[in-house]
C-alpha cells in the first residue's frame, strides 16, 4: 500500500495515552534471511529468535522495569561493512537502553539510538570506512503502551482488526518528494529516490531520531518491525493478511517466505510482536506431532543401543579374562628376540562402548611355538552406503544422505518436512500443509487452492467472492468462475529401514493517515 506518510505523527498523536500501567501478555519472534540474490545477510534484529546473535540479554527484572525492546537494522555499505554496522548498532543500542534509569521510556529510547549512532560513527572512523552505516527501527513495549523511534527506511507497522498502519516515517528522497508535493502517492513505488536515504546511522557523529508519541495497545494488536527487503517485495495489505490470527513465529516466517517467493532481491527481516488474545494459529498438526514422535523414538532407540553395546563389551571382556589361564602366551616369531618377555597389554575396558584396536605388542624370547589366535574381538564398522553418519540398518533412506532427526532421510527444500513425508518436496512449505506452500496466505495450500495467488475463502475453493452489493455475503455474493484446483501431490511412500544386523551396537483501530 503506497501512502503519504507526511501526516503520520499527527495520526499517532491522536492515539496518545497517559503512561500505562496495565500489563498485557506479549509473544515475540524475530526472523531474518539473506534473500535469494544476496551473498550475505547485512540485516540484524533483536531479539533474534533461535540464535545467539548477541551476547547481551536483558534480565527479567530489566524487561519488567524498562519493557521489551525490539530492533531491526539494515546494513549499508556492502560486503562486510554493512553487516558490521548493523550488528554493532544493535549491540550498543540494546545495552545503552537497558542501562538507562530515566522515567520517560520514549526519551530513553531516543537517547539509546543517538548513543548507538555516535558509537558506530567512531567505530567506522577507526576502521577507516567512510561509506557505511545502517538504518534502525526501534520499539519498546511496556505495560500496554508502545514507544517507537526510527532512523532510515526500516519500518514499524501496527495491524489492528485486520487493518495495517505504518507508524514510522521513511527517511528517503521519495518521502521528501511526497511531503513537498513533487510526486503523488501512486508514483512513490516507482520513484528512483526510494532507496536514497536522507538520514542513516553512522554517517555523522550525531543524528536526528524520530520519536513518536506512545500508542495504547489492545488484545489482538500485532506490531511488525521490518527491513525494506520485506516492504519492497510484499504490499502492506498482504503483510496484514499474512500475520492475521497467526502466532508470531509462524507470522514472521510467512513474511520472510513471501518476500523470497516474490524475488527476494534483498535481505529480509521481520520482528513480530502480538498482544495475546487467544486467537493465534491452532496447535501443531498431526504431521508435526508425528515428526516430534519420530525424534523422541530415535532418542530412545539410541539409548537402548548404547546399553546393549555396553553389556556386549562387558561380556566379551569377562570372557577374555576367564580364558587367560587356558590360552598359551603368544610369542614373537623374530629369531633375533632376546630372552625376557614383556607384559601382555590389557584388553579393552568394560566401560568402553566400542572395542578399541589394540597396539601391536613386541614379545621377546625364543621362537618356540606358533602364536595362538588373539582373543581380542575386532571392531567391524557397520555399513553406511550414503555416508551420512547413520548406519544403514537405522537409516530409512540408506541410499540418500539425510538428517538424523528425519531417520536419515533428506529434506531438499529445507522446510522441516522430510522428503518422504513431504507432498511438495521441491517447494518450501508449511508443516501443517504436508510441506506444501500457501503463497496467498489464505490458509488453503496451493495444491488445493484454485486461486493460489489470490486469497479467498475455503468454501469457494480459495478464490475470492465478488460482492456487488458490498454486503460481504448473502444473495448478492456470487462466486467468480473458478479454475480447476491442481491435483494434490502424492507424498512419497515412507522408506523402510534395512534389516538390522545381528551384531548391532545400540480495541479501537488507529486513525488512517
Question: TL;DR?
Answer:
By secondary structure, the chain is of the alpha+beta class. The protein is built from nine helices and 13 strands.
Structural class: alpha+beta
The helix fraction, in percent, is 25-40%
Estimate what percentage of residues fall within beta strands: 5-15%
What's the multimeric state? single chain
Basic shape: globular
Q: Which runs of at least 5 residues are low in confidence (pLDDT < 50)?
A: 1-20, 282-290, 325-380, 469-485, 500-506
Largest sheet: 6 strands, antiparallel
State the separation between the terminal residues, measured CA to CA: 12 Å
| CA gyration radius, whole angstroms | 32 Å
Total number of helical segments? 9
Number of strands: 13
Mean pLDDT: 75
- Pattern of helices and strands: HEEHEHHEEEEEHEEHHHEHEE
Question: Care to describe what's here?
Answer:
The protein is 25% helix and 14% strand. By secondary structure, it is α+β, with helices and mostly antiparallel strands. The chain contains 9 helices and 13 strands. The strands form 3 sheets. Strands 2, 3, 4, 5, 6 and 9 form a 6-stranded antiparallel β-sheet that branches.
